[in-house]
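thread from #wetlab-drylab

HS: before we spend reagent money on co-crystallization trials with magnesium ion, can we at least see a predicted complex? here's what I'd submit
DV: go for it
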Amino acid sequence: METLLLDENQLDIAVKLITSGEVVGIPTETVYGLGADASNENAVRKIFQAKGRPADNPLIVHLADFSEAEKYTRYIPEIARKLAEKFMPGALTIVLPKNEKIPLVTSGGLDTVGIRVPAHPVMHRLIELTGRPVSAPSANKSGYPSPTTAQHVMRDMDGIIPAVIDGGECQYGVESTVISVENEDTVRILRPGCITPEMLGTVSGNVIVDKAVLEGLETGEKASSPGMKYKHYSPSADIVMIESDLEKFTEYVGENYGEGIYCLIFDGDRENFPYRYMTYGKDSQEQAQQIFRRLRELDDCHAVRVYVRSPEKSGVGLAVYNRLIRSAGFEVIRL
Ligand code: AMP
Ligand code: MG
């Protein structure tokens, strides 16, 4: 199969593909997604196949407007409506009890479904034009860093899916914040993103950050979000996080330096840094936007091992930290 690279004026082709049960690479404000009709079991199976995704890892369902969620859910708590009012369209996914219109294949066998209303004009328009709920997990091979450009999608999916829409580089660079509702005054963050705990706290009295966001699960422990139990976001290189100041970081790298060793440091660390490095921004927003691109670029350089300066754990930094510890397989060195 030859994969077409479409531009934003060729949405009609993408619409036809999706309504006929095919999978298309689509730009969103978070990362690129692999879009297909969420109500069509065969189309959804093609997503799992293209990604090599485990069948119990649920897909988020994207809608043109939150009012559409009534069609696919059994119940919408008041707090979910308030959060949707404030943060949708945008990078927030709310897990709600699903109804029979969402097949179990889509929800990974769960009786809940994550609902998101994307803000990206291309994705938004595409959902409207298809008139379907659109599943769109990140358009990478399962386990690999998420794609933030159409070229990244082509690298993972060329010859596997019929088309990718090129919408340029993604604005946020990390996937949506996924939350579940505990009660009318409490939400739980299952996956951090650019809608931060602090932002959610302006609507919800309590915001719990699920333990699995910051730590690996114990053997046999049940994940509240199935995606959390899989190794993810990992390039071929061995990623090691180092929590320390720049001085101790530099000293540690010096003691462990050699062929194939790279460092991922902050923009501000650059001056006189004596070892092979790439930078990933000066603040959490920039780090989020650049992190997946850098992980892919490190593979292009054939990095064997990468020592990463640990980001902030607050605000958007929490999302960056979460992706990095997962890509490091929870290997963190604290100095
Ligand atoms: P991706 O599609 O790659 O952005 O990953 C979506 C992630 O959202 C999954 O791996 C899950 O961890 C989480 N998720 C989606 N739907 C649900 C759900 N119904 N319940 C809990 N977590 C969910
Ligand atoms: Mg993903």
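DV: Residues 57-60, 95, 107, 110, 112-114, 137-138, 175, 178, 190-191, 225-228 surround adenosine monophosphate (ligand 1) (CB under 6 Å).
HS: ok that's useful, forwarding to the group
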